[in-house]
């Protein structure tokens, strides 16, 4: 059984098959659900936790919901392991247009800044992968250096003290 998903403005944004899959409005699968977490169909990137029939972002704020029990998490953590996933499901028949729900009560965590489409297409960021702060800083420096927005001498002098702590391999 598929159920409609709505955004904070009560607009229909997708469908959910509880504990299995999330679909866009045209019933194309965009995510699968495993162990109360949503994972992108196209790359198995973690999209965020699920709270019953509510899709949450990485900060625990609701992006899309089905019933009036919209609740977020205060500090969700990324799961250690990717969820179990099999092949993309066969596309179910398109259900009839859902009725407008009653407006949801504002969640205590507030609403997510992400739209449903942005939530479905997000990618993992270094800080989501449990990297240590020094590795994140080095990754940011490498990116700035590659873009040409950092001076090589300045970048080297700032990182020189850290070279014994971690490898400077790319």
Would you mind describing this structure in some detail?
The protein is of the alpha+beta class. It has 2 domains: 1-123, no CATH class; 131-162, no CATH class. Helices cover 17% and strands 21% of the residues. It contains 3 helices and 8 strands. It has an 8-stranded antiparallel β-sheet. β2 (12-17) and β3 (21-23) form a beta hairpin. 28% of the residues are buried.
Poorly predicted tracts of residues: 163-170
Number of strands: 8
Structural class: alpha+beta
> Would you tell me the overall average pLDDT?
76
String of helices and strands: EEEEEEEEHHH
Distance between the termini: 47 Å
Quick one: overall form?
Answer: globular
Write the layout of secondary structure elements.
Elements lengths: L2 E4 L5 E6 L3 E3 L5 E6 L2 E4 L5 E6 L2 E3 L5 E3 L51 H6 L11 H15 L4 H8 L11
Antiparallel strand pairs: 1-2, 2-3, 3-4, 4-5, 5-6, 6-7, 7-8
Key descriptive features of the protein:
single chain, 170 residues, alpha+beta, 2 domains, eight-stranded antiparallel beta sheet, 8 strands, 17% helix, disordered C terminus
């Amino acid at each position: 059984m598929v159920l409609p998903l709505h955004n904070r403005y009560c607009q229909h944004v997708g469908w959910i098959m509880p504990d299995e899959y999330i679909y866009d409005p045209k019933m194309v699968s965009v995510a699968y659900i495993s162990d109360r977490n949503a994972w992108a169909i196209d790359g198995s990137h973690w999209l965020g936790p699920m709270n019953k029939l509510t899709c949450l972002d990485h900060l625990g704020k609701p992006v899309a919901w089905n019933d009036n029990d919209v609740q977020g998490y205060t500090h969700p953590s990324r799961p250690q392991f990717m969820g179990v996933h099999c092949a993309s499901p066969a596309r179910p028949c398109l259900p009839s247009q859902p009725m407008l729900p009653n407006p949801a009560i504002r969640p205590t965590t507030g609403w997510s800044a992400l739209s449903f489409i942005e939530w479905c297409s997000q990618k993992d960021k270094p800080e989501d992968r449990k990297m240590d702060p020094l590795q994140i800083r080095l990754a940011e420096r490498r990116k700035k250096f590659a873009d040409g927005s950092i001076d090589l001498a300045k970048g080297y002098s700032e990182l020189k003290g850290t070279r014994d702590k971690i490898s400077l391999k790319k």
